[in-house]
Amino acid sequence: MSLVNFAAREITCKLVYYGPGRSGKTSNLQYIHGRVPEARRGRMVSLATESDRTLFFDFLPLELGTISGFTTRFQLYTVPGQVYYNATRRLVLQGADGVVFVADSQARRFDDNLESFQNLQENLLEQGIDVRSLPTVLQYNKQDLPAELVLTPADLEDALNFRSVPSFSADALHGSGVFETLKALSALVLKRLAAGNSGESV
Ligand SMILES: Nc1nc2c(ncn2[C@@H]2O[C@H](COP(=O)(O)OP(=O)(O)O)[C@@H](O)[C@H]2O)c(=O)[nH]1
Ligand SMILES: [Mg+2]
Fold first, then answer.
1. Which residues are found with C-beta within 5 Å of the ion, ligand 2?
2. Residue 20's domain spans which residues?
3. Residue 85 DSSP one-character state
């Protein structure tokens, strides 16, 4: 849940990158971390084992300017994608203001995308979050891979985007689509906040 601090004139929002294991969630945060000027970002914290960086989660705090005199802070999180880490996913998802679903465009990962998307809906439902009102964007990642390995954005759109939310093709390794995705989600979150149907004031 976003936090509006009137005394400090700050708005803090939580954005969660969700998706199957190895779809490119950590890569999104790493790219953002590498491109945002140091003064506007905090330290990226990644909790991972040495052998597998997809375990646990990543955290990256960002300051993305001011809106109506309020400093807007975004806290970016990733969830671990593996099926058996659902408890961690639920924890990370708690209080989310918006979600980026990072799909792996590789044809062989099609079922994993569907399963993870289904898992997202279930976990949101369980937390009493209305899936239809939660700001969400889709990212079709790894579109840089050879055409014979990946599904087209149109195919992925048919399979996943039945709510017609904003969607972006991406190559999180080199950055295309990464900031477009983040900007679209942050705009949706701020729009919802301005409409006054979310958030907590202190
Ligand atoms: N070719 C390609 N590889 C990617 C892309 N995004 C991530 N990867 C690779 O996919 C693997 C998993 O990425 P990671 O960000 O750790 O996935 P996560 O489990 O969702 O956090 C790594 O080897 C990345 O380098 C992409 O857009 N294109
Ligand atoms: Mg990861």
1. 25-26, 54
2. 3-196
3. G
CATH of the domain at 90: 3.40.50.300
Q: Is residue 201 part of a domain?
A: no
For residue 140, which ligand has an atom nearest its CA? 1
Element (H, E) at 99: strand 98-104
Nearest CA to ligand 1 atom 13: 24
Which one-letter amino acid corresponds to residue 118?
Q
Q: Measuring CA to CA, how many Å separate 120 from each of 16, 92, 96, 124, 131?
A: 11, 12, 12, 6, 9
Q: How far apart are CA 104 and CA 151, in angstroms?
A: 9
Tally of structural domains, the chain: 1
Q: What is the pLDDT of residues 47-101, one digit of tens each?
A: 765 555 555 678 899 998 887 788 899 999 999 888 778 988 999 999 999 999 9
80, part of any domain = yes
The reply to whether 202 falls in a domain is no
* Protein residue with least CA distance to atom 25, ligand 1: 173
